[in-house]
Amino acid sequence: MRSLVWFRRDLRVTDNSALAHAAERSTDGVVGLFILTPGQWRLHDDADAKVHFWLQNLQSLSQSLAALNIPLRVVSCDKFDQVPKLVCQSVSQFGCGDVYFNAEYEVNERSRDAQVTDALQSQSIQVHASDDRVIVRPGKIKTKEDRPYQVFTPYRRVWDTLACDDMTPLAIPPKQPKVDLKASKIPTELAGFDFSAARPDLWPAGEAEVDKRLAKFKAKIGSYGTDRDIPSISGTSQLSPYLAAGVVSPRQCLAVAIGRRNGSFTIPSATGPATWVSELTWRDFYTDVMVNAPRVSMHQPFKRSTNKIRWRDDPDDFAAWCEGRTGYPIVDAGMRQLNQTGWMHNRLRMVTAMFLTKHLLIDWRWGEKYFMQKLIDGDLAANNGGWQWSASTGTDSVPYFRIFNPFSQSKRFDPDGKYITRFCPELGNVPAKALHDSKKLADSVGDPTMNYPQCIVDHKFARQRALDEFKRIGDAH
Ligand code: FAD
Fold first, then answer.
1. Which residues bind FAD (predicted)?
2. End-to-end CA, the chain
């Protein structure tokens, strides 16, 4: 029987469960399918940078599949509602008897997959879905009362006992029998998306790039525990765009960090690798939260009581934040990094998100949407988790009274101002100390030729305003 592998955000040939199973079981060749759904992607706020990255990786995937005699066919429809018809048509056109894919866990994606499965099964086509996107499948980890965990640490304890169960990454499948079909040409443009600012120099596509990044990171994982918070250096793996597009699997990442004892894999205890594994666990945790509490992906806070917060409706302040002109150097540098590169360092994601939701008291949903529209690694579960953490509306989020002081943050994590001045070059002549001190900074930027704004809001005033509002809504905090 000939099999169809429907690729989505799993654009790789290594350790790809759906592809490996199809290749193992098929007797008459394998065909790959990818469906472009630009209208749906726009509805989901998928960033230009991310969609460009997908297309570039599709090109690379198509080449890797061709080497295995698997042609990659690319078809297009506007939104998910037309996908079931398109998959059925492809299956019949390519003469396939079964379909393999890796599960996606977002609400619209799950509903699309359920409809595709029904449509295929009604035509006696077998459907095989694998859990491949996270290390421990969502819903698997439960409390003794059979409830999902709402707090990370106990979730992590159980996760540790399961994560290495099925650890050996799957190999690239062997060459398949030839199929008499040509691979599609991968588009380089897509209506409704603007790729003019894409940065393939920063984010080269393909699994060969993943191998380089994994090897480079493995060599420095020992210092991850401390380096991960310094935005001026490359102390983290910078694998998030590749994980989000599935160019690398989370198991391949875990394999970099874990050890082996008596023939079994063990979760590391050394600071660097252990901290990195924690981050991979947060990725699983937020996916689990999204699946168990789907409201979080539908613009609702995890903590329902926080719906009572009176967020400020201030488009001007929001625009200043988006454009990186709040007058807080560390915040502005973070936002400019996002706007210029499609990626932002994790420390800065926390600082900028907290600044928007606490200092400006602007709705976390505005920021969540803006991030999604810009991030090359935009991932609904992780982005929502990060935003609700910062806004104190989420599960296991930062307590509302722990509000970062942006000046203390930059003093601690960017003491010499290297990161700040990389993205705010107009501050290049300001002494480092003044970058972390509101009064000294106000004197320095008083010079209009510098063209850098005064602070948009006073830290003390803003902090108190946020505290008062959170106190007002009372309960749950
Ligand atoms: P590393 O430090 O090397 O971590 C390895 C991997 O672990 C990352 O690639 C990522 O897949 C995962 N990871 C790390 N931290 C987290 C975390 N806190 N939550 C979930 N997964 C994590 N991450 C995304 O992948 N997509 C997003 O859309 C996203 N939006 C965020 C929004 C906010 C407000 C915040 C505070 C965080 C967000 N994160 C998001 C998490 C984190 O900032 C990025 O994963 C990280 O900066 C990516 O860089 P890296 O690959 O070098 O990470």
1. 224, 236-240, 276, 279-286, 377-379
2. 58
Q: Which atom of ligand 1 sits closest to the CA of residue 224? A: 2
Site residues for ligand 1, CB cut-off 6 Å: 228, 236-240, 243-244, 279-280, 282-283, 286, 346, 349-350, 353, 371, 375, 377-379, 382-383, 385-387, 390
Which ranges of 301-455 does DSSP label H, i.e. alpha helix?
315-323, 329-341, 346-354, 364-374, 380-390, 406-413, 418-423, 432-435, 438-445
- Distance, in Å, from the CA atom of 176 to the CA atom of 178, rounded to the nearest integer, reads 6
Closest CA to 72 of 124, 32, 128, 40: 32
**247 alpha carbon to ligand 1 midpoint, in Å?**
16
| CA angle, residues 220, 374, 420, in degrees to nearest 5 | 55
Q: Catalytic site residues?
A: 279, 282, 311, 346, 364, 387
- Based on its alpha-carbon atoms, the radius of gyration of the chain, rounded to whole angstroms, reads 23
Q: What is each CA distance from 468 to 173, 360, 361, 464, 465, in whole angstroms?
A: 59, 13, 11, 6, 5
The reply to whether ipTM tops 0.95 is yes
Give pLDDT tens digits for 237-279.
999 999 999 999 999 999 999 877 777 778 888 789 999 999 9
Query: In terms of pTM, does the model score above 0.80?
Result: yes
**Looking at the structure, do residues 248 and 319 belong to the same domain, yes or no?**
no
462 and 331 in one domain? yes
pLDDT in tens, 357-372: 999 999 999 999 999 9
Please give the residue range of the domain that contains residue 427.
304-473
Same domain? For 34 and 10 the reply is yes
**Length of the chain (residues):** 477
